[in-house]
Amino acid sequence: MWATSRIRRTISGAPALWGTTRISRLSRRAKHKIRVGVEDTFRQAIVATDLRRARYRGIAKVHLEQVFSAVALNLTRLDAWWNGRSLDRGRTSHLARLELTELALTA
């Protein structure tokens, strides 16, 4: 059974505290920020350039495709930065989408 708090059980069954010092929390936060940035970049690359699956066969062609995708992603980010737009679209709920489609149909 997994513990959901800061206490976890060791193999012998005795409780052991996770690193709860201030320094360990700060280092975890710093690592988390890096991880979030990397995951956002991957998500953006997957959505924008469809990097989930390679279109071509062969290492050289796949590498070239990834380089072009990275260039396209960087150009997209530069355009957003120059024009003062946010790259994050934000989330639209299903109900809001339905209302938008109803407004588009009635107009």
Describe, in plain words, how this protein is organized in 3D:
62% of the residues lie in helices and 6% in strands. With 107 residues, the chain is mostly helical. Strands 1-2 form a two-stranded antiparallel ribbon. It is extended and about 55 Å long. It is built from 3 helices and 2 strands; from the N terminus they run E-E-H-H-H. The longest helix is centred in the first third of the chain and has 28 residues, at 22-49. The protein starts with 6 loop residues before the first strand and ends with a helix. It has helices at residues 22-49, 59-83, 94-106; strands spanning 7-9, 15-17.
* Shape, principal axes of CA atoms: extended
What is the helical fraction, as a range of percent?
Answer: 55-70%
Order of helices and strands: EEHHH
What's the total helix number? 3
Low-confidence stretches: none
Q: Can you list the strand order of the major beta sheet?
A: 1-2
Strand content: 5-15%
* Mean pLDDT over the residues: 77
Major β-sheet annotation:
2 strands, antiparallel
Structural class comes to mainly alpha
How many extended strands? Answer: 2
Report the span from N to C terminus.
Answer: 56 Å
What is the assembly state of the chains in this entry? single chain
Radius of gyration: 22 Å
